[in-house]
């Protein structure tokens, strides 16, 4: 219990404790030890944060800034992120168990997202309308929504903050950011860069705590105009219920059970590497994890032989070490759920090709890279998001068959297709019901490209130029250009 770091929340430009002094522990999943303590926000704390954001939006320096000036703040933030990527990545790795090599890269790369939206800030424009009424000039003006509640999970925190804050701030909104109760430290460290970047007090506020009361008060607050949520479907249902109280706009980025399809003409080496990255990268703790592998039966044996060979050599261990390839899971609940679901899969006829257990002689929340052969699409594990390094493998014969299998899911976030046939890749990409499709690659992101799902994976899009417009609404302005008096007041024009 020595050297435990104590954090504070960012509200109205000040670093504060919870109003009642309550805190909760954050666990290092690689060691199982408490390493930091985080404020448990009260409802009053959340209310103060939202009111601070609303005040900053309605009056003060931010409200009067030009789009170019807002863009300058975003650019400064991007520059600072690039400089502090090592320390931010290290904090996130300690708090979540994610690989330092990934968190460090991610913290540096998200600078590009803020730079992108810095350039977008003064590109928002309305339209003039070719109205069918004589002597009237009609145009639209895009206006920011107001206070945005941004809720992010513990995985890929900095990336998810970038895709929410970037477009929201570029459009002129203010933000209350709720960090995950499982890992809040990286976002609080990120918050230290907000003032340095030039954002006025109240523009970005960061609160920490659990769903009750922190999340509930935030998502139901009458001054919140939009909720941008990333997380699980159960929490999303609560968000939707809460949003009905204030009629806030909502976007949801939920979980996935993404199909990874490999045809018989694929480059096998490339496809194997893509599949390994898709399911064992970040220990499978990614919403776009390629956790359903569909192999054409003619290449299935060769593919699995290569993949199992790689899986056996994956180095599991301390996420802060450069030679480690897979770190621990973030929470004990995840680990126990994976063990339960793998056991059920075996009882349903699944065969463990590799892994399927905790590694021997290792403390912490580690789980082996696991490959399970599944003969039946209806097995529970085939369409259950585990958020861990567990891969379900099925075989197929025809293009039509695999499309039907890929779409036989409540999810629809991402998909991977490996084939050398260009026409087939386009056909399958069009036919698969997913918001993101990667062809002959996997798990690639960019600030320029939209990100989001369909069906049970949510709705709305993040990243890309359109995301910024989603944080605005059009105002239609009618102007009478005639000097003549208005006509009959009892007849609509």
- Helical percent range? 25-40%
What Rg is obtained from the alpha carbons, in whole angstroms? 24 Å
Main β-sheet: number of strands, strand sense, barrel status? 7 strands, mixed
CATH architecture tag of the largest domain? 3-Layer(aba) Sandwich
CATH class of the largest domain: Alpha Beta
Number of helices: 15
End-to-end separation in angstroms reads 74 Å
Note poorly predicted spans.
Answer: none
Strand content: 15-25%
How does the overall form come out from the CA principal axes? globular
Q: Superfamily at the CATH H level of the largest domain? A: Aldehyde Dehydrogenase, Chain A, domain 1
How many structural domains can be distinguished in the coordinates?
2
Widest sheet: strand ordering? 15-16-17-14-13-18-19
